[in-house]
Write a structure and sequence with these properties.
The complex is a heterodimer of chains A (233) and B (99). By secondary structure, chain A is mostly helical. Helix content of chain A is 73%, strand content 0%. Chain A has eleven helices and no strands. In chain A, helix 3 runs antiparallel to helix 8. By secondary structure, chain B is mainly alpha-helical. Chain B is 80% helix and 0% strand. The radius of gyration of chain B is 20 Å and the shape is flat. The chains are: A mainly alpha (233), B mainly alpha (99). Chains A and B meet through helix 2, helix 3, helix 4, helix 5 and helix 7 of A and helix 1, helix 2, helix 3, helix 4 and helix 5 of B.
Chain lengths: 233, 99
Amino acid sequence: MSTLAPVLRRAKSPVVFDAIRDIAPMALAVIPIGLTVGASAAASPISGLAGWLGGPLIVAGSVHIAVISLLSTGASAVVVILAALAIGARFAAYSAALSPAFAGQPTWFKLIGPYVLVDQTYAVASNRMDDSAAGFRRYLLVASAVLFAVWIVAVSTGLALGRVIPESLQLWMVMPLLFAAMSAKALVDKAAVAGLVTAAVTALALSPLPSGLGLTAGIVAGTVAGWMTRGAR
Amino acid sequence: MREIIIVATVGLTMFALRTSFIVLAGERQMPTWLAGALDHLKPAVFGALTATMLVTHEGVGPEHLAAVAVAFALARRGLDLTLAILAGMVLVTVAGLIA
């Protein structure tokens, strides 16, 4: 985020600067989502503490909101956990994709580093896998800490105040716009185009499926399509 | 109490998903086909996420699709992510005021 540059110029290390610059637009974009998650927890019959704990423990808006709505409808624990697995399945793919940068890292980092592994942290950290071990470590920890802090504040605020942002502002659009813009930057070859289009079409076609299965299926189909198109440039 | 235990269990499940391959890193070599496929994960994630966010939100109209197209086109032309998002938000807001 170039507009933040003067503020950050005094940052001690270029890696810290990069991490904050890269995660800043993402952190801004999760604010309306965190507020919405908090507000829906406040409006649901589940206890405020249980709704809030999803912020620091689940650390994923899509999973958090599904847990709140399933618990509100009296779903069994097994159903809630299976739904969470289906929606969060992509985190295992992010784990696999980033794992080369974790080889040789200290154990504490292998456990703490992925704690805030979500769409946004994967998107930025996957560009830094060629950094030194210490550089990658610092980058991921700073980006994760910023995103986590903003997320917790947003969820807590939504929980305390309910719906604070008028629906007419349509702030939910920030997130799809962010990912659309990032899509544009990720289209480096034919394989990327094939993967992106296949993923979007599959996710659209399967969106009526419950529990975010359409999203997971779209990611899998797009990855396979990109892989099969590899080499064609 | 039951709710808190379920939320905590979901949290543990997410932690297990996130650390799964990372904790195994260095222990054993990832199969080459899997490593190859994962090179193509990112565009698929962006495409599927954008599509899902649009289609699962109620009341999505042509102005939302146009805003996404504008943000995509601007970013494609090298514009900063934040500015591309801002342009899309301006379009959606103006369309909302007119409607």
